[in-house]
Amino acid sequence: MEITNVNEYEAIAKEKLPKMVFDYYASGAEDQWTLQENRNAFSRILFRPRILIDVSKIDMTTTVLGFKLSMPIMVAPTAMQKMAHPEGEYATARAASAAGTIMTLSSWATSSVEEVASTGPGIRFFQLYVYKDRNVVAQLVRRAERAGFKAIALTVDTPRLGRRESDIKNRFTLPPNLTLKNFEVLDLGKMDEANDSGLASYVAGQIDRTLSWKDVQWLQTITKLPILVKGVLTAEDGEKTLKSTTQNSHSSSSLASWVIALLVITLHFVTNSPKSVCYFFLSAARMAVQAGAAGIIVSNHGARQLDYVPATIIALEEVVKAAQGKIPVFLDGGVRRGTDVFKAIALGASGIFIGRPVVFSLAAEGEAGVRKVLQMMREEFELTMALSGCTSLKEITRNHIITDWDAPQARLLPKL
Ligand code: FNR
């Protein structure tokens, strides 16, 4: 049967995969209220399309952290992709690269940063879990940098693993033929069987529960890569993320900028070269960008951590306001349609990430499946833009949608 939308891959994956693996990919935490809400909330946002606009050319391109993408649809980090298909993360990396978009590799991938880099060119981010042993973290970040990864997505919503009941029932553990490849050389690549979820026990043993805002700054001291804070759901934390940026840019980086400025201006007078002035501005700009958290990912971890948090599409707007346009805000969670992508952008997101559709399509058809998912999302998004009267991302505005928090009942009533 022909696949006509991204959702259809879930049923195929369910048929193909062992129950333990499918349940691990599909499930959310506890009552799975947030899991459903991540999808349902999109259906409570309606369009206010504009007509009689020339939509013969639609430009979906965008820039994320300075990298040009063919569309604002990116791949979220999902762990252990070789459970879905033998090619696992390799297939995902190739598919994302072919689609002209970003793949985020999970810390808990079944392929290492070096292996994924060897699949060929592509813009890739590395998702980081902070281990208790900071040497492990520092080594891994260095390896990701060396392997050409362009940013770190620091996951901040997992001091402990959410209670995923099917993983407990299934005694979930990584199949014995696979390892968490990034940690193999550090002897942390295996997951022991446990009386409940093997992953939950692994997290309890290895992941640092003390992680706090000061560690975001610590991370900035060990890497030059831009850092995206993944797992923000409130304006309060959006503001803190922003402060982690500005505080830092007023301290070490701006001092460094001034030192460089003095050096370069001296050079300018000694050599009388206008080029050196340009270098000054260039290096200062680069440092400002590198100064702190470079962006926020509004995420509830695909509803796998704290149940009864709002859908990410509901939380998005308050975080966007808190970020004040100073750093980009991205979203993941329940995005399955081009219409969902449009709604997120209308609410201020600079782009979205998809998680489960990647592992389900990988299970069904390997690399071809992931390519198809990205292609279907692209085509649906393009059509949504055309039918809403938007020819580029910047033309998508808040006024192109109406939500049920705009005014009580406003969504279904005429706007008079
Ligand atoms: C995830 N997610 C995740 N996040 C992360 O930071 N590191 C990880 O290793 C993983 N692993 C992972 C595995 C699986 C099977 C799922 C479904 C999710 C969360 C992921 O990055 C993203 O936030 C959600 O998947 C987005 O929601 P959707 O698109 O799956 O609804």
Automatic annotation (TrEMBL):
Cellular compartments annotated: Peroxisome
FMN hydroxy acid dehydrogenase domain: residues covered: 1-406
Top-level enzyme category: oxidoreductase
Presence of keyword RNA-binding: no
Catalytic activity entry: glycolate + O2 = glyoxylate + H2O2
GO molecular function per UniProt: (S)-2-hydroxy-acid oxidase activity; FMN binding
Gene Ontology, cellular component aspect: peroxisome
Pathway the protein acts in: Photosynthesis; photorespiration; glycine from 2-phosphoglycolate: step 2/3
UniProt record, GO biological process: oxidative photosynthetic carbon pathway
Top-level division of the source organism's lineage: Eukaryota
UniProt subunit comment: Homotetramer.
Protein name per its UniProtKB record: (S)-2-hydroxy-acid oxidase
Species this protein is from: Arabidopsis suecica
